[in-house]
């Protein structure tokens, strides 16, 4: 079995998914690229242990976004393009998977526009890994035949918001909401208003897959208040659907349930 792979290539941008939080969930390909890059541009929330793989002489830039602060996407695009043009073997280290609500498509498009080669290295998305770590399978026979991944934080500069809660309320499966802590009350209200039962099992998992993992579980209509009582903030993954009830069977270590 061949477990090694080609090193990071000079003049190339490698869009690497760091996984959901636990550094052990990085892919082998991602580790190889980190070990051989000459510049890494990392998200704010990637496991810091992953940067220990980077050569000490490599350039390290944290390009994390914060509400109302941090790097703009255009600045990140310019950084990785300029670095690759200068001959660096660039790793753009992104939380989760680059193409699941990670704006990796925009960064790949920036490389195409600049005429630069790029490589996409998939990562384990928090949309499935974080619920799993909390004892929640996003699909389960007889309970949820499908799941949908939704952003809770759309670009405020867009002329129209694209998430339509009416069809999502009727979706016959599990809803997984990423980046939804700030909008959880609106989200829950909209889903119930459009027909989703107020008693639908729901959970929010903060710092999923890590030793800092905390879980709040409550009926959908009560989830925002439960999260507020528990002071459960970002980063968190919100799961809505009957599969949340599987926690009682599958969760190895309940950590913060009910937040009473």
- Determine the CATH superfamily of the largest domain: Tetrapyrrole methylase, C-terminal domain
Helix count? 8
Q: What is the ordering of alpha helices and beta strands? A: EHEEEEHEHEHEHEHEEHEH
Calculate the terminal CA-CA distance, rounded to whole Å.
51 Å
Overall pLDDT confidence: 92
Question: Which segments are poorly predicted (pLDDT under 50) over 5 or more consecutive residues?
Answer: 254-260
The tally of structural domains comes to 2
In terms of topology, how is this protein built?
Elements: E1 12-17, H1 28-36, E2 39-42, E3 59-62, E4 65-66, E5 69-70, H2 73-85, E6 89-94, H3 104-114, E7 118-121, H4 126-133, E8 147-151, H5 165-169, E9 174-178, H6 184-193, E10 201-206, E11 214-219, H7 223-230, E12 236-240, H8 247-250
Parallel strand pairs: 1-6, 1-7, 2-3, 2-6, 8-9
Antiparallel strand pairs: 4-5, 9-12, 10-11, 10-12
What does this structure look like?
With 260 residues, the chain is of the alpha/beta class. It has eight helices and twelve strands. The chain has two domains: 12-121, Cobalt-precorrin-4 Transmethylase, domain 1 (3-Layer(aba) Sandwich); 126-250, Tetrapyrrole methylase, C-terminal domain (Methyltransferase, Cobalt-precorrin-4 Transmethylase, Domain 2), CATH 3.30.950. Helices cover 26% and strands 21% of the residues. Helix 2 packs across helix 3 (104-114). The protein is elongated and about 55 Å long. It starts with 11 loop residues before the first strand and ends in a 10-residue tail after the last helix. Residues 254-260 have low confidence and may be disordered.
């Amino acid at each position: 079995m061949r477990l090694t792979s080609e090193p990071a290539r000079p003049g190339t941008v490698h869009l690497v998914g760091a996984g959901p939080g636990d550094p052990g969930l990085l892919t082998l390909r991602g580790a190889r690229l980190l070990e051989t890059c000459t510049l890494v541009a990392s998200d704010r929330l990637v496991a810091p242990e992953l940067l220990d793989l980077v050569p000490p002489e490599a350039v390290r830039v944290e390009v994390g976004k914060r509400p109302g602060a941090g790097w703009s996407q255009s600045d990140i695009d310019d950084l990785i393009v300029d670095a690759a043009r200068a001959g660096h073997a660039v790793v753009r280290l992104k939380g989760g998977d680059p193409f699941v609500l990670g704006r990796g498509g925009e960064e790949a498009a920036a490389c195409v526009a600049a005429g630069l080669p790029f490589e996409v290295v998939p990562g384990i998305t928090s949309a499935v890994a974080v619920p799993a770590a909390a004892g929640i399978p996003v699909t389960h026979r007889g309970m949820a035949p499908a799941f949908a991944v939704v952003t809770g934080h759309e670009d405020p500069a867009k002329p129209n918001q694209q998430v339509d809660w009416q069809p999502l309320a009727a979706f016959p499966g599990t809803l997984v909401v990423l980046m939804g802590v700030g909008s959880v009350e609106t989200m829950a209200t909209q889903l119930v208003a459009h027909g989703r039962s107020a008693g639908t099992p729901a959970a929010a998992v903060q710092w999923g897959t890590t030793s800092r993992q905390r879980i709040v579980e409550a009926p959908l209509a009560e989830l925002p208040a439960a999260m507020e009582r528990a002071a459960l903030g970002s980063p968190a993954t919100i799961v809505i659907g009957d599969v949340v009830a599987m926690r009682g069977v599958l969760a190895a270590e309940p950590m913060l349930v009910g937040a009473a």
